[in-house]
Structure of Branched-chain-amino-acid aminotransferase:
Amino acid sequence: MSITINEIPVKRVDKSRLPEVDFDNLAFGSVFTDHMFRCTYREGRWQQAEVVPYGPLTLDPASKIFHYGQSVFEGMKAYRDSDGKAWLFRPEENQRRLNISASRMAIPELPDGLFMEGLKALLEVDRDWIPGQSGSSLYIRPFIFASGTGFHASPADAFTFIIACAPSGSYFSGKVSVKIEEAYSRAADGGTGFAKAGGNYAGQFYPTQLAARDGFQQVIWTDDHRHEYIEEAGAMNIFVRIGDTLMTAPTSDRILDGITRKSILQLAESEGIPVEVRKIRVAEVVEASKNGSLREMFGAGTAAVVSPISSFGYRDELFELPEPEDSYAAHFKKRITDIQYNRAEDPFGWRYPLG
Amino acid sequence: MSITINEIPVKRVDKSRLPEVDFDNLAFGSVFTDHMFRCTYREGRWQQAEVVPYGPLTLDPASKIFHYGQSVFEGMKAYRDSDGKAWLFRPEENQRRLNISASRMAIPELPDGLFMEGLKALLEVDRDWIPGQSGSSLYIRPFIFASGTGFHASPADAFTFIIACAPSGSYFSGKVSVKIEEAYSRAADGGTGFAKAGGNYAGQFYPTQLAARDGFQQVIWTDDHRHEYIEEAGAMNIFVRIGDTLMTAPTSDRILDGITRKSILQLAESEGIPVEVRKIRVAEVVEASKNGSLREMFGAGTAAVVSPISSFGYRDELFELPEPEDSYAAHFKKRITDIQYNRAEDPFGWRYPLG
C-alpha cells in the first residue's frame, strides 16, 4: 500500500517552550516538545497529515481506545553529535514493526512514506529540542489508537496516528535488580506479546508493583505454561552471558523483536563473540550462577539501550551477579551509543541523518 | 476503603437529544444519552464526582491510556417494565468485578458507594432514556482509564472513571456460528484474562476478523497451551449441553467470571437441571456432535444475554447444531429476561429497583 505524501502543512506554536526546559536535569518522557505530528484514519483511508502544536486531544467518551485498548506504539530516539548534527537509529525498523503491531491489533497499516515523512517533518520543526548533553536524547513516541466510537466490542472505524517527542535522560539510573516471575505472565502463545500493543504493558504493571515491594526494579517474564524459560523483561529483551557465550531467547509470538536486541546480536557475531539464540531455561541460569559461570545478565531496549543487571531473585533466593572487567553490557552499550551519537564508524548503515 | 459520597452535583444539558432518537430501530451502543457520570483520581484519591453533559474528553497526548492500555470496564443494563418502572440486574456484581479488574491493572479501586451512587445519580437524570420497547434496554458502560501522563511504562498517577449509557437493541441478531480457535489465543495463565481490561478485547479483533472471512460471527477461545479445552468467547461465556447435562468451564485467571454465566448456573441448579462446571475438551464436543448427544451450545453475557449457537467450525469441518424443542438457551433467556423486565418472581433478589 502506498500513497503520495503531500507536503505536510505545519502549524507552528506562537511561542516555544524550549527556554523553560532544564536540559541538564531531564527525566524520562515527561516534558514534551512544541509540536506533534498527527494523521487520522477515517472513511477507509489515512487523511491529510499535519504538524500541529503539541496539545490536548478531544475525544468522544465512546472512543474505543478507552474501552478496548486498541492501540500500538513505537519507541525511538534522535541523537545529536558533537558537531550538532542530528541522527536517528534504524528508523525503518520502527516503521516496519509498527505495521506488524498494527496488523495484529486490527489497526490499518500506515502507507509507505507516511511514517518517515511525518517523522522528518516533525523533527525539522522541533530540531532544537534534540539534547546535546551526553547520555540524553530526544525520545520519540509514534502511536496509533482507536478514536472511532461505539460500545460494540469490534475494531474501530477511525484511528489517530500521532508522533510526539520528549527530550529525555536515562530510563533507569544505575544497576537493575530483577525478579524472575513464576506466578504472573506477560503473554500467551498465539497472543499479542510480539506486538507493541498498549494492553501488553498495562498487564505488567501490577506484577511489577509486587516485585517492587520486594526491592526489584523489573520483572523477567517466563513462559506462561511452566515458567521454565526466560522470555523478556517487558520494556527490554534479556541477554545472559555464561562463560564467554552470549545468549538470548529467540523471538516468538510472545517476545518482542527488539531493535537493540538484534543490533547487539549482529555486533556480537561480527566480533566473533560466541552467540546462542535459543530458549534459556531458568534452571540453567540458576545453576550457572551457583557454579560461577554466569558472568552477566543485561537488558536491551531503545529506552535504556543496555541495562546491566546486578542481581536476580528467583523463588526466595537472591542471586548476585559479578561485575566482570570485560563486561559485554558495557561493551555493547558503548558500541551502540558510539554509532548512535556518530562517535564511531557505522559498519551496518544503522545511522540515519536528519541533517 | 470507604468515603462519604457528597451529594453529586448535576450539570444538565440545555436541550435533550431524546426526541431525535428512534427507539424502534436501536443499534447496539452507538447512541448516547444526554449525560455522563465522571469522577477523577489524582493526588492519591478519588475527587468530587459529578454528572455532566455527555461530551468530549480533553486529554494530553501523553496520557497513558493511549500508550499502555491501562483501562478496565463493565457492561450492565437498565430495564423498563410494563408499568414504566426501571430496574438494574445484580449491579453489586459489576461493582465488585470492576474493582477486581482495577486491582489487576494497577488502577486504584473505587471506594464503597461511589459506583452505586454515581450510577443512581446518572440514571435519575437520564431515566427517560431507558427504552420501554421489548428486547431493548439501556446499556450502561462504567469504565476507568489512565489519564495521567508520561512515556515511562509504569502505572499512571491519574485516572478517569466515567459511566456512559446507550439505549440499545440486541447485540447479535439471529443465531451465531462460531469458530473454535487453534492458532490464536485470548489469555495466558497468570495473565489478565479474568479482568475486563481493555487490551484483552483489542487482542481478539484480528483473529475474529479472520474467522469472519470464513463466515463465523465469534471465536471460541481455547487454552493457549494445547488448544485442548474450550474457554470462553471473548464477549460471552460458553455453555455446552450434552444429553441433558449443562456444562461450562470453571472460571480461572484466563476466564471472565460472567454475571449471566453465574445466574444461569444458579437457575439451572435450582431447577434440578444436571450441571457440570468443569474443563470441557474440544474433542468431547466434537465427539458428542458426531454421535448426536450434543444438543446445544450457547453464549451467555450481559450484552446478548443468551446467544444460541447454530454451528461451530473446528479445523476444516463445520458442525451443525440441532434446535431442540426444549432448548436450554431459550429457557434461560426467558427466565433471565423475565426477571430483568419484572415479568416474573425474583427468587434470588437479583433485581435492583431504580424507582
Q: What stands out?
A: The mean pLDDT of chain A is 96.
